[in-house]
Structure of Zinc finger HIT domain-containing protein:
Amino acid sequence: MAETIITSEALPASSQLIPSPSRIICRVCQKQFSQYTCPRCNTRYCSLPCYKSHSLRCTESFMRENVEEELRQLQHDDETKHKMLDILKRFHSEDEMDGMDEDDSTLSEETIQKILSGYQVSFDDLSAEEKKRFRRAVASGELSKLIEPWEPWWLKPSARTISLSREGTQLIQPLAKKETATSPPDGSERDLLCDIPPGPATPLPPVSKLSSTEPSPLLAVHLLDIIYSYCFTLRLYNGDWQSDPIGSATVVLSVSSVLGEGGLPETVLEALSHCLEQTCSPAFRHMGGLQFGLGLLDDSITLLSLGGPALVCLLCDLRRLIQAAKGELKSEKSRKSKRLEIKSKLNLADRKIYFIMCWVHEQPVEAWSSLSDIVKAEKGLAMEFAGNRGGTLRTENKVETRGKALIEEVQ
């Protein structure tokens, strides 16, 4: 059928212009002016109903391509959400195994199905009853058992084989040692390099080029403060500081007096006292108090025993954490004064970490074993004190002299 075109004679004088496509009658209903063109067959149509009925082949093809594109996008989302979905599935299945009825579940069946279907559900989307149950589950530690325990990289066998170049950059390890015929086909034996935070990408300059004055003899004490805060943060975030760089950096600055307050502890005891006081404070007491702090001392001892290369990798990872927080802070919508205050602290912490990293790289191997022995001795005193005092603690008063107790008992 030939296209019917409205001629200029049928229009008012004011509209006698050059004919345009908008004056073409809809090829489907033959009643209205066409406003659209099908991108596949170039058919002119006036409305959605006419588009849907003009060609089944066109509409089905269009819908199929849109669905395929949506599925491709959802696949990427699934990769980032599979951990949470696994947790929800395990939690839901454990509820059923324990014989709990639907009313006692932390999340309703409807909410769980939404999450499993790919919908993003925030805490505000929960019902009042679900919020109440969720808070109760968090407070009781019921949800923590569903999180897969994280194994710190410094406890893995590969941490004992870290090697750096003379300039401080990490050496590339040959894959031949790891890719053997006995390796599992599913790739569960990860590349050893993935277990350890990468070392510096560029050579570390001598400390003499960073400062005209001699390095402080107290840098080893300051390093211990930083090691503890790093281990604390990674334990708190189950090894995944990337999930919340700003929050992780805030924890580092809270625990470390050197990075967060510009503190200059003069003894190992003073540095550890501050760290343990923060660990036992109301803000972090839920992590386990003194017992958790003693475990972090074990982490610090382990890292010191691994030597300079492991410490450089630790500091490099901590610097990445600080820099990630700085990058995320730029896009965060918060008060300008608050952003400037945090940014200033992060910039200062970044410079301190880099300076100490360069200093660590220059130190002899025996320096770390001596520091490790001192930390072991201080840990022994802390354990003896906790045993004698029954583990009842107070953390308001800072220790000023070596003769005072590490943590004082509540009166």
